[in-house]
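<context>
A single protein, sequence plus fold
<sample>
Here is the protein in question:
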Amino acid sequence: MLLTLPWVVVAATGLALGLGTVVAVSGLSILGASFLLAWGAETAEKDVPRAFAIAVLAVLAVAPEYAVDALYAWNAGAGGATTAACGQLTAAQIEAQATPLAEACHKANLAIANMTGANRILIGIGWAGIAVFTVWRATRTKDPAVQKRPGRFTDAVQLDTDIATEIAFLTLATLWAFLVPLGGGIGLFDTLFLVGLYVAYIGLVLKSDVEPSEHTVGVPRYLQEWSVPWRPLAVLVLFGYSGAMIFSAVEPFAHGLEEIGIQNGIPEFFMIQWVAPLASESPELIVVAVLVNKARSTAGFNALISSKLNQWTLLIGTIAVVYSIALGQYGTLPFDLRQSAEIWITAAQSFFALAVICNFEISIREALLLFALFISQVLLEFAIIRDWVALPVSSHDLLLAYTALYLLVGTALFVARRRAVARLFGIAGDTVRTAMGRDPVHVERAD
C-alpha cells in the first residue's frame, strides 16, 4: 500500500515531475498494486470458483493493455481510417503521417502492433520466464508441481489438468486468429466469435465448484478468516483500489518509457510494439511471480493462460468495437500487410505454445526454446530496422519465416503428443458436460 501512495499524491495534486521520476513513481505504484491484486484474488477463492477468481485477476492485471490499445483504436476511428481510405495511401505516406487520414491509418496499425506485441511478450517472456523462475524457486519452496528429472534442462513444471478448459478455448481462439488477416481487418464476425467465446468460457467456469483453500498463507489467509460481508468487501476493495492504481499509473509509466526510448534513438513503432506492452503486462507478471514465490505455481500458470485467453479474445474483439464507436458507424479496423504478418506470427507462436503445454507440463528446455524464438525474432527485426546487419530478407519476410518455423515445430509436437491432445480435449469436454448437468465420459488413467 505504501508503494502506491506517492502516485496517489501525484495524481490527486497534479504535481509536475520529471520524466524519470514519473517512470519511477508510477512503476512502484504498479508493483504495490500488483501485490494487492494477488491478495484479492487469493482471498476470493474462499467464496467463488478458483478459475473465476483467476479470470477476474487476469482481466484486471491486463486492463492497462486494453486501455493503451483502445486509445490507438479510438484515434484511428476518430480520424476516419477505413479499409477503403487507407488503401488509397502508400505505406510511405502512412508511415510519415503526412495527412490527418494517414495519421489515423498509422494509429490503426499501432493498435495491431501493440496488441500482437503484448500477446507475444506474454508467452515469450511470461510463460517462459515464470517456468524457469518456478523451477529455480522450488529449491526453497519445495513446490510439488515441479518435477525433478535426470539430464540437463529437463526439470518441468506440472500443470493442473483443470486448466484443460482454458487451453481448449485458447486453441479455438488461436485457430480463428489465423483467419483474421484474410478479412482485411478486424470486423463484426471476429468480434462476435471471439467475445462470444470468452463469454461462454466465463459462463462455464462460474458453474465450477468452490474448492477448499488450505494452501493460502499470509495476508489472504488472514482475510479469508473474516466473516461475511467483510470478507467479500475486502476483496472488492482490493480489486477496486489495485485496479484503479494500475489503470491510472500504467499509461504514464509506458509513455515515459517510450519517450526515454525515442530520446535515445529507438523507433516509435518498435517502442509501441515492445516497450509499451512490456510495461502494461508487468502487473500480470508480478502477480504470477508472487504466486510462484508462495509455491502456488499452478495458480500462477492458470493466471498466465487465462490472461492469454482474454487478450486473444476480448482484446481483439473489443478494439473493433471501440474503433466503430469512434468512427460513428460500424466499421472494420484496417491494417496493412505488415500487421497481417504480425497477427500470423502471433497466432503461430500461440499454436506452438499450446503444443508445448498440451501434455500439462512445461520443461526448462521448452521454456528456453519459447524465449529463444521470441527474443531472436525481436532482436533480428530491430537490427533490420536500424540497418545494423545486411540480411537478404525484409522485416515482413522475417515475420513470415518465423511463422512457418513456429507452425512446423508446433505441428510436429502436436503429432508426437496426439494422445495427450485427446486426453486434454476429453477433460475439457467433461467440464462442459458437467456444467450442462450431464455425466462425464472421460476417465482419467494413472500413467
